[in-house]
Design brief:
By secondary structure, the protein is of the alpha/beta class. About 35% of the residues lie in helices and about 20% in strands. It has nine helices and 15 strands. The strands form four sheets. Strands 5-4-1-13-14-15 form a six-stranded parallel sheet, with helices on both faces. A five-stranded parallel sheet has the order 7-6-8-9-12, with helices on both faces. The chain has a two-stranded antiparallel sheet with strand order 2-3. The radius of gyration is 19 Å and the shape is globular. The mean pLDDT is about 95. It binds magnesium ion.
Length: about 270
C-alpha cells in the first residue's frame, strides 16, 4: 500500500457520536511512524477546528492542518474561478468561515454564486432568495452531492437533496465540489504533499470515497463500518483495492499490542 492516507471520517473513524474501535489506534500508529495523513470529509458544516475538537472526544489528538473539508475545497474552487467573488450561502459555520478565509464575501443581493452546503438552516425564504439569484445569473454550486447523511437518530436529507430542490425549480444543474469530484481529491493530494501512486484513500462509501480514489488513480481501502454492505459491492463497475471489516484491521499487530499494554499498565 501507499505512503500516506486520505481518511474519510463518518463511517470510518466514528458513527454519529460513537467512535469506531481501532480508529484512535490507527491514527496513533500513523503519528508515531510519521506516515502522512489527512482527514477528508464531505461534511461542510464544521470548520477544521471544530473537527479537531470533535476528534479529541474519540481520543484522537490532531491539528487543523490534518483536516480538509468540502467547505474548504469549495472555497478554493470558487477562489480559483473568480477571486473576490460574492456568494449567497445556504449552509453553516464551516462553509461561511472557509469562504471568508478565501476572500469570498457573503451577500444576499447580486451574488456571483449561490452555494449550498450541509446543515439544518434551510427555510423557504432562503430557497426563494436563492432561486431569484440563480434566475438573474448567480451560478449554482454545492459542497457535496450526498443526498442523505447518517445521524444518531437515523438518516436526514443531505446537501444533494437540498440542491436538487433548487435544480428542479430553476432548471439549472449544480456543480458539486466534494468527493468524488477530482477537484477535491487532487487538492487533498497536493495538501498531503504526495504523488498519485503514494496515496491510499480509506472510506466507507463507494460512490464518493472509492469512486474519487479510482478516478484519480489512488489506491483505496473500503471499510464496512459505514454505508457499504459487502453484498452490494458487485453492483459497482469499479472496486476498491482492498476491503476490510473495519479500520482496526489496518493497525499493525505490534502497535496494537503496545497500545493495549499501555492502557493496562501505563
Ligand atoms: Mg463516510
Amino acid at each position: 500500500m501507499g505512503k500516506g492516507y486520505l481518511i474519510d471520517m463518518d463511517g470510518v473513524i466514528y458513527r454519529g457520536s460513537e467512535p469506531i474501535p481501532g480508529a484512535a489506534e490507527f491514527i496513533g500508529w500513523l503519528q508515531s511512524t510519521r506516515v502522512p495523513y489527512l482527514f477528508l470529509t464531505n461534511n461542510s458544516c464544521y470548520t477544521a477546528l471544530d473537527v479537531v475538537v470533535k476528534l479529541r472526544k474519540f481520543d484522537i489528538e490532531t491539528t487543523t492542518d490534518h483536516v480538509y473539508t468540502s467547505a474548504m475545497a469549495t472555497a478554493e474552487f470558487v477562489h480559483k474561478q473568480k477571486p473576490a467573488a460574492t456568494a449567497f450561502v445556504i449552509g453553516e459555520g464551516g462553509l461561511l468561515k472557509a469562504l471568508n478565509d478565501a476572500g469570498i464575501a457573503v451577500s444576499r443581493e447580486r451574488a456571483d454564486y449561490v452555494i449550498v452546503g450541509e446543515g439544518r438552516v434551510l427555510n423557504f425564504e432562503l430557497v426563494e432568495q436563492a432561486h431569484r439569484l440563480i434566475a438573474s445569473g448567480s451560478r449554482l454550486i454545492s459542497t457535496n452531492a450526498d443526498t442523505w447523511c447518517p445521524t444518531d437518530n437515523g438518516p436526514r436529507p443531505g446537501c444533494g437533496a437540498i440542491v436538487a430542490l433548487l435544480e428542479s425549480a430553476t432548471g439549472r444543474t449544480a456543480y458539486h465540489v466534494g468527493k468524488p469530484n477530482p477537484f477535491m481529491m487532487r487538492a487533498a493530494r497536493k495538501r498531503i504533499g504526495l504523488a498519485t501512486d503514494e496515496v491510499t484513500m480509506i472510506g466507507d462509501t463507494m460512490e464518493t470515497d472509492i469512486r474519487g480514489a479510482t478516478d484519480l488513480g489512488f489506491e483505496s481501502i473500503l471499510v464496512l463500518t459505514g454505508s457499504s454492505q459487502p453484498e452490494t459491492l458487485d453492483q459497482f463497475p469499479y472496486a476498491p483495492t482492498r476491503v476490510v471489516t473495519s479500520i482496526a484491521e489496518l493497525v499493525p499487530g505490534r502497535h496494537r499490542a503496545a497500545r493495549i499494554s499501555e492502557m493496562h499498565f501505563g
